[in-house]
Structure formats: C-alpha cells, structure tokens
Amino acid sequence: MGISIKSTGMSVATATTSAIEHSARAARGAMRSAGVEPEQVDVLINTGVYRDSNLFEPAIAALIQREAGIGLEYPEGSNRSFSFDLMNGACGVLNAVQVATALLETDSAQYVLVVSGDTHPSLQRRRPAADFPFVTAGAAMLLEKTDTPSGFGPVHVAELDGTPATRGFANTAEMGVHGRSLVTVEREDGFEERLLEVAGVAAGKAIGAHEGGLDLSRAALISSRPTPGFPAALAARLGIAPEAVIGSGAVEGDAHTAALTAAYHQVDEAILAGYDTVLFVAAGAGPSAAATVYRLAPAA
C-alpha cells in the first residue's frame, strides 16, 4: 500500500496574477488529467503563502475550492468536500503530503488535492517590486491510496537555530492605506548557504531512513529553487549526478510553494525511465527543510 501521485496540474498563464485563479486552474487540470470528478475530491489543502490583496479571511483554500468547482453542491448520499490552508513556506507541500497520508491511509478520504501558488498582493501584471523574489504560478497534486508499494515515504524535517533566512511580512507601520497591495520580503546575507545546509540535513535523514537503502545512482532530485543554482548545489552535496536534477522548464525563477509540484508536472516517463525513486527536498524561511523519498511504480 502506498500514497501516490495520481496526477498533477499547473498554471502559468499570463492573463492573471491571481494565486487563487492559478491554483484553481491547476486543480482543474489535475482532476481532468486523472478523469476524477470534482465531487470525488474529499479534501483540498492549500499551501500558498503570498495571497491576492493580502487576503486572510476566509481561508484561501475555500476560495480555490469554489473556483475549482469542488463540493459546490451536496446531493443526497454524496461526500462533502473539506478544504483548509496549511502554511509552512516552501516546505508546505511536503507537510500537506504528511496530512494527506494520514487521511488516505485511514480511508478518511478517497482523493486529496494539494494546491499551491503565490503572488504579490498588488496583482500587477509585471513584477511590482524588484525585491519580491517569487514568480506567480499555480500547481496541484492529486493524491490517492494504491495497492502497490510505490508512493511517498515518511517526510523528514530539519531546522537550524538563529534568525530566519527569509522573512515575509506586512509592515503595518509604513503601508498606511495601501495595506492590501504591499508586502515586504527580506532575505539575509548568505541565506542560500544556510538553506543548503538544512536541506542537506533533511535529505540525509530521508536517504538514511529509506527501506533497503537508497541507490543514489537511481534517484532523481526535485528541490525547491530559492536561487537558480540551488538544486545543482544540493545535488553535489548529496552525491547525486547533475543530470538527475529535475527542474521546471515552465517556470523561470522561484515558484516557492508551487516549485516541487511544478517540477514533477514537467517530468515525462522517458525522463524517469532510468530511476527508481524521486527525492523531494524543500527548504526556506526558518531556515527549515523537509524531504521525502517517492518510490516510482515499476515500468509496465
């Protein structure tokens, strides 16, 4: 038995800068690809952090659920869909996998949809501030329980002491009447090195705990992308070959919470043919990191 990715979806269209709309488009794409109807999705988890107009109430997950057409009606005998926000920066998707695993393993849900995406609150068409480091995109991962051993292993986490490597906040003392369109994101000097350190710790835990040992020559790496060179630098630390690093060609820059799902969405069977597992690693903020090994289904 395993918790597997049934399908993924992605939205990078330039017609909107709404994280809600991007996440909903990605959710619809994932359901369409899997042939799953909206009423079959029992739980939607949103891991996005930076929101349209700095909106915090109601839960962004509920707005994405509505836009994706999930659980809008309750016919007699049908399951009711539930949604909620889970925010932990770049690690949020893997934290959502932890929650989804508990729901699916106990048969509390048939399908769990994990969505993610960030945007500058001003929603301007062009990047509104040079110091805002994240690109706008939406991604969705539809999870299910299967009878095969393929799927996610345990999620391992790590943290470093000290000040946060990245901070995002609304500066209420300075924003005045423009609070719905402004956000401040600060990254400390040398933040990439600290993120690499904590990512290496989390990844090492996941590698060491993998049942039967993990053959790194048969493992692909998908990591968050706080800087362009981060995935390659992480691979070098872990002893993973450069060609095993899988990025997202559809997103130029740091897609933040959407990065892991977006990268996996771009992968086709030919790319993964030479691998048995995918090592997912995310790092950010805290600085903290999360990592898990995803066992691929054997080729038919």
Care to describe what's here?
InterPro entries: ACP_syn_III_N (IPR013751), Thiolase-like (IPR016039). Residues 84-153 form the Beta-ketoacyl-[acyl-carrier-protein] synthase III N-terminal domain. One of its GO terms (molecular function) is 3-oxoacyl-[acyl-carrier-protein] synthase activity. This is 3-oxoacyl-[acyl-carrier-protein] synthase-3. The chain is built from 8 helices and 12 strands. Helices cover 27% and strands 24% of the residues. It has 2 domains: 2-148, Thiolase/Chalcone synthase (Peroxisomal Thiolase, Chain A, domain 1); 154-295, 3-Layer(aba) Sandwich (Peroxisomal Thiolase, Chain A, domain 1), CATH 3.40.47. With 300 residues, the protein is of the alpha/beta class. The strands form 3 sheets. A 5-stranded mixed beta sheet has the order 1-5-4-2-3, sandwiched between helices. Strands 6, 7, 10, 11 and 12 form a 5-stranded mixed beta sheet that branches. Strands 8-9 form a two-stranded antiparallel ribbon.
